[in-house]
Specification:
The complex is a heterodimer of chains A (139) and B (498). Chain A is mainly alpha-helical and 139 residues long. Chain A has five helices and two strands. Chain B is globular. The chains are: A mainly alpha (139), B mainly alpha (498). At the A-B interface, helix 4 of A face helix 1 of B. Chain B: It comes from Histidinibacterium lentulum.
Chain lengths: 139, 498
């Protein structure tokens, strides 16, 4: 599609969508959101870019093949599950690490649950993009 | 302890990720083989633990039983994981020769490992919704493998496969929803207890939905049409692993659900299963008799053989269920091997169409000998593994006075020999129509080694089970005991809760 309006609009929207997708990913831990929806929103950003400027440009902007991102995401998610082994827990048991003072409530919790969610984000992001790019190029 | 259960699922996933990231390099295919070896090792560990200590259950993520995802291994599950790992390794070795670089670059090894992970997960899960997820993992990987390469014929087969499997998936998911609405739980062990308190008539309706859903996956009569329409199109490694494993996941799920959860109205469900078993055997074997393509004949024989396993479930005596378990394990090895042999015959003979190949007996006697082992085993010749499997089921039907089904099983066995001799006659005995002399020697030595190691290994296993059936028989009998008396299974899963 060759439309100046869409191209200019896309330039603003892509960045917004990507930031929003990260926001959804991080928010997902205790509120609605998470890796799946975040990955979908992130993918929409690049799909929009592909529609406005062509898949060739979108692939170049992505820098690496979307299939690779999806598979790497699977690896990250697996890592989050397998990490539990080093603490003697069953597969996918959440491991928590707290930065700061737990008693005063002034701390940041970091967990393998987040790592798993990042993996899901990448899997969804990568696989949706590889499907859409392939469809766009076939049409 | 739960890691014995988690490892057989985690290893193929790790192998899939590694193989995908390394695609395009030669190392990709070796990752597949190392992964398969590690998978086999973990499966052997699991079997030894389950044999020694009985049913093993583990709660993933440390969420307690009816809430989280439980992995459970009884003898049936552990045995199926074991045979999956054996086929996984054999086909991974075979793929060294069968899969060319083009398919490797498209991600064959990653999809293959995801498929193995999906199959293993389906065998190990103790949660109905999780079973659905594993079905999906399996299905997505198999869609990919089926159309990998993108021939016209493959896409045609792929569409039929996708369409019918989606119908089955929707049916499955609807059944899961209804069951959850009735019982409030999807943990299989918890379901076994919860179904006592719900409307029994409605439960039978849900049971039939599951029967149809798993029936499509298992390719029973009259839901098998997708199988012969698609299994002859992909690469031989792919069709071997499909033929060996995928339909058996359906049979496994039928056995699991109809012994554990849907055992409330045996007077209704078992006769249905018995009819399905008989008609599946007959239509499968007759369909095979009318085909003229190596792989299509074998595809119809999958259908026919599924009937035997369903027969074991339908009779539901200890001997019959043990027979079904024995049959499952024997059949997976034999059927995968026959597809692998079809691949070699195609490679050196030039075609899988019976009228376009020939002369392999004279020029490749080793391959002919290796074909005879699984072919005779499939038909039930003593002393091969198929003889014991059929013997158990026929004896079980005679024991309960089911003369007709015993007769059907025997006649179908006889007709199986007919199709096998048809392949034997056309591919091995008659001279090649173009006057060629196809020989294994014309292959590159590395390819020949990969072919012979995988096919020879599986054939050796068939002979071994045939000559020393007792260990597998005892294993199957324990499996049947556990299936028919689910108390131990429920205790293992819900131990702390009950």
């Amino acid at each position: 599609m060759n439309s100046v309006i869409l191209r200019v609009g896309t330039r603003f929207l892509v960045g917004l969508l990507l930031i929003f997708s990260i926001h959804m990913l991080l928010r997902g831990h205790n509120e609605p959101g998470g890796g799946f929806i975040g990955g979908l929103i992130g993918a929409i950003g690049f799909i929009l870019y592909a529609i406005a400027c062509g898949t060739e440009d979108a692939r170049a902007a992505l820098r690496t093949a979307p299939e690779r991102i999806a598979m790497a995401g699977l690896g990250v998610a697996l890592l989050a599950g397998v990490l539990a082994a080093f603490f003697g827990d069953p597969l996918f048991t959440g491991q928590w690490y707290f930065i700061g003072d737990q008693k005063s409530g002034d701390y940041i919790p970091i967990s393998t649950v987040l790592v798993f969610d990042i993996g899901v984000y990448l899997v969804v992001f990568g696989s949706i993009l590889s499907l859409v790019f392939a469809l766009e190029e076939a049409i | 302890m739960s890691w014995f259960l988690a490892l057989p699922i985690a290893i193929p996933f790790v192998a899939a990720v590694a193989a995908f990231l390394a695609r395009g390099y030669r190392v990709g295919r070796w990752i597949s083989i190392v992964g398969a070896l590690a998978h086999l090792l973990s499966a052997i560990l699991l079997i030894s633990v389950v044999s020694a200590e009985g049913i093993l259950a583990g709660q993933m993520g440390t969420w307690p039983a009816p809430f989280g995802i439980t992995l459970v291994a009884d003898n049936l599950s552990a045995g199926m994981v074991g045979v999956t790992a054996v086929i996984g390794l054999a086909v991974a070795i075979y793929a060294l020769a069968d899969i060319d670089e083009r398919l490797e670059n498209l991600g064959y090894h990653a999809l293959y490992n995801v498929l193995i992970a999906g199959v293993t997960g389906a065998f190990l899960t103790g949660d109905l919704f999780n079973l659905y997820v594993w079905f999906e993992v399996m299905l997505i990987a198999s869609f990919g493998l089926l159309v990998l390469g993108g021939d016209r014929e493959q896409i045609d087969g792929g569409i039929k496969y996708v369409a019918l499997n989606l119908v089955s998936t929707v049916m499955f998911l609807t059944g899961v929803g209804l069951l959850y609405g009735q019982t409030g739980t999807l943990n299989m062990a918890d379901l076994a207890l919860a179904t006592e308190n719900v409307d029994q008539g409605l439960l039978t309706v849900i049971a039939m939905m599951f029967m149809v859903a798993f029936g499509v996956k298992a390719a029973v009569f009259p839901l098998f049409f997708w199988l012969p329409a698609s299994y002859h199109t992909p690469a031989f490694s792919v069709s071997a692993v499909f033929a060996g494993l995928l339909t058996k996941v359906g049979v496994y799920s039928l056995i699991r659900m109809f012994t554990l959860v849907f055992d409330h109205d045996l007077g209704f469900t078992q006769p249905v299963l018995l009819w399905v078993a008989a008609l599946t055997m007959i239509t499968g074997v007759l369909g095979a008799a009318s085909q003229t393509d190596f792989r299509k004949i074998l595809s119809f024989h999958i259908v026919s053989q599924i009937g035997y396993m369903v027969l074991g479930l339908a009779l539901l005596t200890p001997l019959a269920v043990a027979g079904a378990v024995f049959y499952l394990i024997h059949h997976i090895i034999v059927k995968a091997n026959l597809f692998l042999i079809a691949g070699v015959a195609d490679r050196i003979g030039g075609s899988t169409c019976l009228s376009k190949v020939g002369g392999l007996y004279a020029s490749a006697p080793l391959l002919a000998a290796l074909f005879l082992v699984p072919a005779f085993s499939l038909a039930g010749f003593p002393p091969l593994s198929g003889f014991w499997a059929k013997y158990l089921l026929v004896k079980a039907s005679l024991d309960v006075g089911a003369w007709v089904i015993a007769g059907v099983a025997l006649v179908v066995g006889l007709l199986t020999i007919y199709s096998m001799t048809k392949i034997w006659g056309a591919v091995f005995w008659t001279p090649h129509p173009e006057g060629r002399e196809p020989s294994l020697k014309q292959l590159d030595p590395a390819l020949r080694r990969a072919y012979l190691v995988s096919i020879g290994g599986l054939a050796g296993l068939t002979v071994l089970i045939g000559l020393v059936p007792q260990p597998l028989l005892t294993f199957s009998e324990v499996a049947a005991e556990q299936l028919l008396d689910p108390g131990a299974y429920i205790d293992a899963v819900l131990g702390e809760v009950r």
